[in-house]
Design a protein that fits this description.
By secondary structure, the chain is an alpha/beta fold. Helices cover about 35% and strands about 15% of the residues. The protein has 10 helices and 11 strands.
Amino acid sequence: MQLRPAASRPSIAASVPSETRIYAVGDIHGRADLLGETIARIDDDLRRRPIARAAEVYLGDYIDRGPDSKAVIDILAARMVRNKAVCLRGNHEDLMERFLHDPDILRSWLKLGGMQTLASYGVHSRTNSPSADDLYRQFRHALPRTHEVFLKCLRPWISCGDYLFVHAGIRPMVPLDRQNVVDLLWIRDDFLESDIDHGKLIVHGHTPVPHPDVRHNRINIDTGAWHTGTLTCLMLEGTSIQFL
């Protein structure tokens, strides 16, 4: 394994605390195979280069579109317990959890790849026109209790040193304690097009890019894993920005 330095990145003064290393992983979208490979690289890096404090941060959108959403949550739920990994809430997990309380959310969820997630739990439509109530009952029966707990443990954001980790981004010029959770999960243009200093360097996903996008005020690590086969892991240590 080789650590790849961030190519052609602007000068960034952000840092994490001493003796701390952060591994941040972008949107997974049902690619349990890529997640397993990424975790193996993290574990190998830690064996070769031990450090006092290592943290894993997963940026949300674990489910939908790809084939193995259930397996992804199995892996992350175990990682959360064994490694104290921090898992953030993505807009796709939000839709999944909302469906568990309101079957009428189904149509919105299916537009974003929800049927692939349902299928990974063994839930299938018995007709060409899926009934929300039928799929809801099947999903309720199939969903492990550990997965419900996992959903409840997802965080909206986390901060460490000069970095803020969030799924989609933040509303520019709005203090963190006044951010709307909808923005944290769904925002795009207002955040992506902003050139201002947010007070923290924002690490996010949500909007797929061909390769990690490192800017002076944000780093986007959603590289469209479900269809590109590239799941990005950002590694932060001191003032270093690298990719596993």
